[in-house]
Design brief:
The structure is a homodimer. Chain A is α+β, with helices and mostly antiparallel strands. Chain A is built from eleven helices and 17 strands. The two termini of chain A are 39 Å apart. In chain A, 62% of the residues are buried.
């Protein structure tokens, strides 16, 4: 597997993209993105579990059933959430306009929105934006699309990797956005992947769902789950490989591994760019009794405001980690727990048998000042491992969210 | 029911208390509290559900079974948590010393600790403190005890009320501490109540457990659940009422109502004094399908960092409330939801049918600037109501927790 330098979604055969300013953001920044496959493509997606679902999510939950999906239209600046019947009609209208211009059926278009909740879309601006964006589609448009889906993100998130499947070169790429309200179970987090592999639609949905569970759903910034979360993928077969239909095949395994890599790397970049974050935190739980327990523990630690504030302050507070392990809901034996703090090139044990041990506090503080802080919780009570990602809790998180106007 | 002005635990017949400096806090502030009943008393308590339980909690889970409980010894400055076998022995030692001085059996003494995790108690200081505190016991010592259990609290929490039971005057009073790590399911939160009522021990446990579920367990400051949480009550019968043994009696109902009042008021004062808090937030969910659903919704809103930061910024962001309702896990119909913001003397509706409505944003902002902010979520889908309490998320929360040394 090779990571393409500065790669993005338009590095994938048969995909074009564009990102423009439609005027939905007061800042005048790009706010409309379009991804288009020149060939027929199968799609898969996962959606927010929040009962309050934004209008475009409701539309997509229908459209994802289509055997062909060739376009994804996304706006930022307005989430089209809590907007009722009118909002639903507007989301549908977006798919209809794009479908007409690209000669598709409306159900062959996915739509997403991100931004402020509870305000109707300015459909005049949207319509004129849709008019402008189609001619902008190009094989260099991926980075622009990646920019156009951002809200409070501080950097765009693009990734592309190449693998070989049955002698054919296959590319998998994605753009993502994160920042506020990022939490397990698909909080305001968008990820759009494209690949030129040829694969059965049902198999794509199965592997994609599992992969998002281990990546985006293991990210937490503030514990809130949004109305608009979605991760989706299009696969258009342009690589020319023999269609993958068997999940036990070598080809499928290679694809799965690369897909997991792309999703995890995008998930990490989302965690790193959490609102106000100064550090990426990675919590790995080892040797839990079940996978569910391993995930519970990692998520519990990464979600603890007290632990996150301690990391911001570079305070080696293992007690807060152990405390979060204890209330995670996982089955475990406290006396068996070991905790380690992991830096760039050093691992230091801070707790053993469920108790603190003597350790060089200065050395740990040095690690806690690095850009990436690792925590390993070894439960010593089974064979399941799971990793979760998040960021520190800072003054800036409060500032951004105490006065957030688009 | 009458609230006693500046009332505290020593306003209850037959109870003495003391609060002194033993030197466990670097600040030199009071850090050792003793509550003592001159008469035999029955006790009830609820403990943290965290699997990582502090040493004194383990001791109390045994001692609470005793038919007689006449003393509670509490230190602040050190939580005696994650301290293993030595910690357990030290907690037991504290009950033994107090028992000897007060002529009790060690199992007739409850012990609690609050403060830093993972450090062994300085037993020399503790022992000399225990030596000093017993002679300090007095009928005016309640306020000192209330002060001595504080950690990052900014004000002591005392309350006492009088009721009449079968022609006898009965008093119920309590001291509490809160601040960091306060969350449903008994997070670092201590509440010690005393009453002179005569009541059956089992009945006391039953009514006390239920009452804490609706009060302390409905408070959230930061979502963390600590290793040391506990709420306990002693009832010594000094009021001279006929012993209450029937939960259907009028006397029991009067007592229950007063007990609920004391617990809820102490819970509210804990929420108000959350670390860095500037406002008390009260979220009431109405007309849920089940009591569990009503609690889930209220807790989900009060725990949302995004909502809490919006309240700090006096931002009328009903979308974040609706979003938190949606991911609460409660069964509900989004289209039926109404949301109201409630101030001192005004209620303003901000959402209807699961959507925002036009409202005077300035008026709502005025309410959000008050010291107490109310939110009412009407699910219009059943008959169950529940209230939760919390506080706003502020710069100071991050500051206190990024650099918390006792």
């Amino acid at each position: 597997m090779n990571v393409i330098k500065n790669g993005t979604i338009t590095d994938v055969k048969g995909f074009k993209a564009a990102g423009i300013t439609a005027g939905l953001k007061k800042s005048g920044k790009k706010d409309l993105a379009l991804i288009y496959s020149e060939y027929k493509a199968v799609s898969a997606a996962v959606f927010t579990k929040n009962l309050v679902k934004a209008a475009p999510i409701l539309v997509d939950m229908e459209n994802i059933k289509s055997e062909n999906t060739q376009a994804i239209i996304v706006n930022s600046g307005n989430a089209n959430a809590c907007t009722g019947e009118d909002g639903y009609k507007n989301a549908k209208k977006m798919t209809e306009i794009i479908a007409e211009k690209l000669n598709l059926h409306p159900t062959e278009v996915l739509v997403e929105s991100t931004g402020i909740i509870g305000v109707q879309m300015d459909m005049e601006k949207v319509a004129s934006g849709l008019e402008k964006i189609v001619p902008e589609l190009s094989e260099e448009g991926g980075h622009n699309a990646g920019e156009a889906i951002m809200t409070t993100d501080t950097f765009p998130k693009n990734l592309a990797v190449k693998i070989e499947i049955g002698g054919k070169e296959v590319t998998i790429a994605g753009i993502a956005k994160g920042s506020g309200m990022i939490h397990p179970d698909m909080a305001t987090m968008l990820a759009f992947l494209v690949t030129d592999i040829s694969i059965d639609k049902k198999l794509l949905q199965k592997v994609f769902s599992k992969s998002t569970d281990d990546s985006y759903n293991m990210v937490s910034v503030d514990g809130d789950t949004s109305t608009n979360d979605m991760a989706g993928i299009l696969a258009n077969g342009a690589a020319g490989n023999t269609k993958i239909t068997d999940e036990n095949s070598e080809e499928f395994k290679i694809f799965k591994e690369a897909l997991n890599f792309v999703n995890k790397e995008l998930a990490k970049s989302i965690a790193k760019d959490g609102e106000g974050a100064t550090k990426l935190i990675e919590v790995t739980t080892k040797n839990a009794r079940t996978m569910e327990d391993a995930k519970k523990v990692s998520k519990s630690v990464i979600t603890s405001s007290l632990f996150k504030a301690a990391v911001f302050g570079s305070d080696a507070n293992w007690g807060r980690i152990l405390c979060a392990v204890g209330y995670s809901g996982a089955e475990l034996i406290v006396d068996k727990i070991e905790i380690f703090i992991k830096g760039e090139d050093k691992i230091i044990q801070v707790a053993k048998n469920g108790m603190g041990i003597d350790f060089g506090e200065e050395e740990v503080e040095k690690i806690l000042k690095e850009e990436k802080v690792g925590v390993i919780v070894n439960l010593n009570d089974g064979n399941y491992d799971a990793t979760a990602w998040g960021c520190d809790l800072t003054y800036d998180y409060v500032k951004i969210n105490a006065d957030y106007r688009t």
